[in-house]
Design brief:
The structure holds two protein chains of two kinds.
Chain A (H helix, E strand, L loop, with lengths): L2 H8 L2 E6 L6 H12 L5 E6 L4 H12 L2 E7 L4 E6 L5
Parallel strand pairs in A: 1-2
Antiparallel strand pairs in A: 2-4, 3-4
Chain B lengths: L34 E3 L10 E6 L9 H14 L7 E5 L3 H12 L4 E6 L4 H9 L3 E5 L12 H11 L6 E3 L6 H18 L6 E5 L4 H13 L4 E7 L27 E5 L1 H15 L5 H10 L9 E6 L7 H8 L8
Parallel strand pairs in B: 2-10, 3-4, 3-6, 4-5, 7-8, 7-10, 8-9
Antiparallel strand pairs in B: 1-2
Classes of the chains: A alpha+beta, B alpha/beta.
Chain lengths: 87, 330
């Protein structure tokens, strides 16, 4: 198994669907979910409130997490967040 | 102003009273919360200073009145049925709402600032409430110091608004009505109309506005004093409008004096009230009593101050200020 493959298998990706929830509820739930993950784990977060486009990046900066990607569709956004070292 | 009908008690003779339902114990003009004179902490000011002990209410605080009126208002408007309640609270409103919600066949979800004492959170969970601890700076972008209020609003509005009914203590006229119809008339009756100063802490502002408005209508010379904490305070239930949003129900016209009190003065007064008056009050009572030092009263004036809750829900806070005091020094 290559190093790349080893790393790929060690990163856990968790899903959190916050469709239909208004801010700051997605921020609250995302923070709760991230608190349960190990550093380096990833959270795939789905939201529909456009406020999340500002709130989620700000939250990740505040918490010291990494916002790996943001996919915008017509009616929803998908954030991929990698947990940093803080709880 | 709305009117709420209460059940008639079995007997008005206090020695023969019994209650068929704890809600009959809620205070009103026929069953007022007690007022007790402070005889030691006022020093040489020669005031007639009375505390209205709201912690003698069945769920332990002045918010018993508010919660009852909020729920009755929802029921009257047909907004209560088959929904859970949601409210932002520093604890006391939520405790009363949780208790009354159970009796109404529903449940409370409360968003509560994460600095609130653990005692209150445990009480809420014992009453069956769901407790969402909320940092004040929850909203990273739009960041008023009201994360719990913002979260309660989003819970109420999410999922098409189908699950929760928001009781909205910061916006509901029912909050004002609770104090206009009960707290104010009780004070007027208990003082035989002699009250000159009414002093209460600012939080939702329901007490100050509702009771203050009633008293001023009875006697326009009565002065209403609102007590506000300093920004960054540790006085649960109180709001500094230097950092928190002003509630929609606040009517500044009712207030004659606003006094800002710091944590040190509030906790010093709280300790003095415990030790010199043997009244086990909460920190906001200390703030209110400390504020009276800054009010231009005349000798003999009758002052009524609200003691919103007791100190038993704040023992973890008191532990911090006591340090090693009261432990044997070896």
């Amino acid at each position: 198994m290559s190093t790349e493959e080893t790393i790929a298998t060690e990163i856990e990706v968790y899903d959190l669907d916050c469709a239909g929830l208004l801010c700051p509820l997605p921020v609250y739930k995302a923070a709760l979910a991230l608190a349960k993950l190990e550093p380096g784990d990833r959270l795939r977060l789905i939201t529909t409130d456009l406020g999340a486009l500002e709130d989620i990046p700000a939250m990740t900066r505040q918490r010291g997490d990494t916002l790996v990607s943001v996919d915008r569709e017509v009616d929803r956004q998908t954030f991929l967040i990698q947990k940093g070292t803080q709880p | 102003m709305t009117t709420t009908t209460r059940q008639i008690r079995l007997s008005s003779d206090r020695s023969a009273r019994r209650f068929e339902d704890i809600r009959e114990m809620l205070p009103d003009v026929d069953n007022p919360s007690p007022m007790v004179r402070l005889n030691h902490v006022t020093g040489a000011r020669e005031l007639d200073l009375y505390l209205k002990l709201e912690w003698m209410n069945p769920f332990g605080s002045i918010k018993d009145r508010t919660a009852f009126y909020l729920i009755e208002g929802l029921r009257r408007r047909g907004e209560l049925e088959e929904r859970e309640l949601v409210e932002a609270s520093s604890g006391n409103t939520a405790i009363a709402l949780a208790a009354l919600a159970s009796l109404a066949g529903t449940r409370l979800t409360t968003t509560i600032p994460d600095g609130v004492p653990e005692e209150k959170k445990v009480i809420l969970r014992m009453l069956g409430a769901e407790v969402w601890e909320t940092p004040d700076d929850l909203c990273p972008v739009d960041n008023p110091k009201d994360g719990a209020i913002a979260l309660a609003r989003s819970l109420a509005a999410s999922e098409g608004g189908s699950r929760y009914t928001a009781t909205r203590q910061y916006e509901s006229e029912d909050n004002i009505a609770a104090h206009y119809e009960t707290t104010g008339p009780e004070i007027w009756q208990q003082t035989l109309g002699r009250v000159k100063w009414f002093v209460a802490a600012l939080g939702t502002t329901g007490t100050v506005v509702g009771a203050g408005r009633y008293l001023k209508e009875r006697d326009p010379t009565i002065r209403v004093v609102a007590v506000e904490p300093e920004p960054g305070h540790r006085l649960p239930g109180m709001k500094s409008f230097g950092e928190a949003s002003v509630p929609g129900i606040f009517d500044r016209q009712v207030v004659d004096h606003t006094v800002v009190v710091g944590d040190d003065a509030a906790y010093a007064a709280t300790t003095e009230i415990w030790r010199r008056e043997s009244l086990m009050v909460g920190p906001s009572t200390g703030a209110v009593v400390a504020a009276i030092e800054q009010v231009p009263t005349d000798p003999g004036d009758l002052v009524v101050a609200i003691s919103a809750d007791s100190g038993v829900k704040y023992t973890s806070y008191f532990e911090d200020i006591l340090g090693e005091e009261g432990k044997p020094q070896i």
